[in-house]
Design a protein that fits this description.
The protein is of the alpha/beta class and 346 residues long. The chain contains 11 helices and 15 strands. 34% of the residues lie in helices and 27% in strands. The strands form 2 sheets. The protein has an 8-stranded mixed β-sheet, covered by helices on one side. Strands 3-4-2-1-5-6-7 form a 7-stranded mixed β-sheet, with helices on both faces. The mean pLDDT is 94.
Length: 346
């Protein structure tokens, strides 16, 4: 019964205890009704302890624990299988993005999720919880600045490898490069505003880092209703950059900088330009100094689990739609698609 649920914290396991898994744990354990009881990572030994949680080296062994919730922060080639295994064990699952290497990976997860509708499955599209973006959505939905005409995004860092692993540079393990790893956040933000795109043009390049995954992706996209979006996702952006401009019939919204774990994208701010009656532009700027996105995301997941609420942000259906968009962009560059035999998922 629901009263019993409140009587004890929900037991959480974290599969993949790298930088992201460890950061997740800080926010899980800070939640009064959640407790990390087990973690797994290739670098850990079986049956050790880290801050009171039992350790495993193999993520599948963590599934033998009596868990309520499984958090998956594993490399792309492991995440779908472990997510599926968690659902099959009857656990609610929270999986980081990207949801897999390919569209097929996510379709496999979707099939299992549809077979267990009582379980909650959420993907970590964390940027949707940032204050600047939430404010932008509120403003767009209010209609105060009219309707959206276009979106222009740039998101980049200085290399593909991050932290302590190089699996991200290998196509068979990662599936894709900077667009799939980082650009996917911005695609998810754009898609939330514009809906799906039926025309996509792109240039995909690995000329600088020469991995078999891209280090730059440039896309130009159009919806059926005529909203146009461009995105540049880059691993040759020597100065880390996050910028999303949303053009509307009666104004402009600029999101600049994003508060992140690495703190290298600058302060987070929203700049709002609003056309007034005599076409004068009024400018307002808000700065955000606190990143509560990780806390808020976990809060929302907890209440979905305990109150049987529908997952809204980062549902498996949404993850699949965003994943399809990534592959629409990959396959729109004919040379790139031919080189790696990529299919357009639409």
């Amino acid at each position: 019964s629901s009263t019993m649920i409140l009587a004890r914290p929900l037991r959480v396991g974290i599969a993949g205890y790298g930088v992201v898994g460890q950061r997740r744990r800080r926010f899980i354990d800070a939640h009064e009704h959640l407790q990390t009881v087990a973690v797994s990572d290739i670098k850990l030994n079986d049956n050790g302890r880290i801050d009171g949680a039992v350790t495993y080296s193999d993520p599948l062994n963590i599934l033998d624990e009596d868990l309520d919730i499984l958090f998956v922060s594993l490399p792309n080639y492991l995440a779908p299988d472990v997510t599926i295994a968690g659902l099959k064990r009857g656990f609610h699952v929270f999986c980081e993005k990207p949801p897999g290497r390919t569209v097929e990976d996510v379709e496999d997860v979707l099939k299992i999720a549809q077979g267990s509708p009582h379980l909650k499955l959420k993907f970590g599209f964390n940027h949707r919880y940032h204050e600047s973006y939430k404010e932008a959505l509120k403003l767009i939905n209010s209609g105060k600045l009219g309707s959206v005409i276009n979106l222009r995004g740039a998101y980049g860092k200085s290399k593909i490898i991050s932290f302590d692993s190089d699996w991200r540079t290998k196509r068979d393990q990662a599936g894709g490069g900077i667009l799939l790893d980082q650009g996917i956040h911005m695609l998810d933000m754009i898609r939330t505003i514009s809906g799906s795109f039926n025309e996509v043009f792109s240039v995909i390049s690995n000329d600088y880092w020469r991995h078999d995954v891209e280090d730059n992706a440039y896309a130009l996209m159009k919806t059926k209703t005529g909203v146009v979006a461009t995105i540049h996702s880059s691993a040759t952006q020597w100065r880390h950059t996050f910028r999303l401009e949303i053009g509307l019939t009666d104004g402009l919204i600029v999101l600049r900088g994003i508060l992140s774990g690495s703190q290298s994208y600058g302060d987070e701010e929203i700049i709002i330009y609003e056309k007034t009656s005599n076409d004068v532009l009024e400018k307002r700027t808000f700065e955000y100094t606190q990143d509560n996105s990780w806390r808020d995301e976990i809060d929302e997941f907890y209440s979905a689990v305990t109150q049987d609420k529908k997952i809204v942000i980062g549902s498996v259906e949404e993850a699949l739609a965003t994943m399809k968009l990534v592959y629409q962009i990959y396959s729109a560059d004919q040379n790139w698609a031919a080189k790696f035999d990529l299919q357009n998922p639409n």
